[in-house]
Amino acid sequence: MTDINAGIIALLNINNITYDLLCQADFGNNKLLQFNNLIELCKDYEKLNLNITAIISESEVLGTSGISLQEPLNIKGMHHIPFFLISEKLDDNLIRLSLQAGIADIFVKPLSLPLIQNRIRFLIKNWNYIQKRKEKKEIIIYKTPFLKRTFDIIFSGLALICLSPFILLVIIIMKLESRGPVFYYSYRVGTGYHVFKFYKFRSMYVDADKRLKDLKHLNQYNNSNEKISPDSGTMILCDECRMTGSHCRNQIYADNNTWCEKQYLDSKKLHGDATFFKLKDDPRITKVGRFIRNYSIDELPQLWNVLIGDMSIVGNRPLPLYEAEKLTTDKYAPRFLAPAGLTGLWQVEKRGKAKMSEDERLMLDNTYAENHSFLYDCKLILKTIPAIFQKENV
To answer: 3-state class of 28 per DSSP?
Structure first.
């Protein structure tokens, strides 16, 4: 028998397959309890004073057990309980209708167990806070504290001055080894979703994309798949930009050429590493480029980003546009309420770990956003120093 004092996740119209999946999830101290219909749920809620922490219904958004249930739940005094839907299909209009109706979240089949587990646990824990924020229509805008901004200006300014002979030497050696621009940039999303140009030293030859045609036989993942290697000046649009009829919004700029960063990574996920080249001792990378990559020297131009205020010395790493677009939910959005930085909490935590999941990294970003202070930043800087000498970009 279910303990009426325990947290209960009420299930409505859940089929056996979905129920078996939900039973595998870890919802903390919350237990699953099935109800035949809304009337039974409301009756037991009032009669037994059940501690219902969430309601999950499996239905199409416009179905009888979809968003139409939100209003009677509100009438029965359950407006403070997050209501989730599991549906077969979803589009932008249905998402908009669901959010306007007050639905907490919608999961589309096939279901991802880690996603549904983490999302529901997070919203159960933070639902009251989220609702209060909505009622107040509170908009939080991060503003860099005066002490932190002063430190950033002094640190980055002195670093650029002290390192200027070394930076000049790198530039000269790069020019001697290969023609072309010294810097390249891509657009990144930082504090408060501010988009800016993210600079690095160039580490490849200017004709790196053309060289792919001559290096097929060296591909470690060589197979019959077509290799995507756009010629100079050719832009392959991702599906999103093609549908909107716009220019690519996720471009990387260098050597008078542009590449769609999102299209590259999306194709890689779809087709596997064989879709692209993975070369041992990649000959497209210059000798200087390999050295500056190994020791993170290619990141030095970002000191300029810090000096002009795009970034801070310590903060959450700025993200490419296509990644940032996926992190606007209540779970991940707090990371943007902290400064974008050269180094941060997850870089320090990653040291000594063979692998860190994407969710772990994003949770560390949120942790930093909630706890950052000038003293905390100083501690992270001291812990980051050993990472400068390791041959790994974090």
So the answer is: coil
User: What's CA 218's distance to the chain center, in Å?
Assistant: 33
Q: Please check whether residue 279 is in contact with residue 218, taking contact to mean a CB–CB distance below 8 angstroms.
A: yes
Residue closest to 72 by CA, chosen among 97, 41, 48, 49: 41
Distance in angstroms (rounded) separating the CA atoms of residues 381 and 69: 51
Distance, in Å, from the CA atom of 306 to the CA atom of 155, rounded to the nearest integer, reads 9
All domains of the chain in start order, with CATH: 7-136 (3.40.50.2300), 146-203+285-389 (no CATH), 221-281 (no CATH)
Q: Tell me the Cα Rg of the chain.
A: 25
Residues near 106 by Cβ (< 8 Å), separated by ≥ 6?
A: 61, 84, 85, 86, 87, 90, 94, 95, 98
Cβ atoms of residues 29 and 9 within 8 Å = no
Strand residues in 92-234 grouped as ranges (E): 105-108, 183-189, 195-201
pTM of the model: 0.50
For 210-220, write each residue's pLDDT tens digit: 555 555 544 44
* 355: enclosing H helix or E strand: none
pLDDT tens, 66-104?
A: 888 888 888 888 888 999 999 988 777 788 788 778 888
Q: What is the 3-state secondary structure (H, E, C) of 225-241?
A: CCCCCCCCCCCCCCHHH
Burial of 13 (0-12, 13-18, 19+ CB in 10 A): buried
- Residue 73 burial (CB count, 10 A): 21
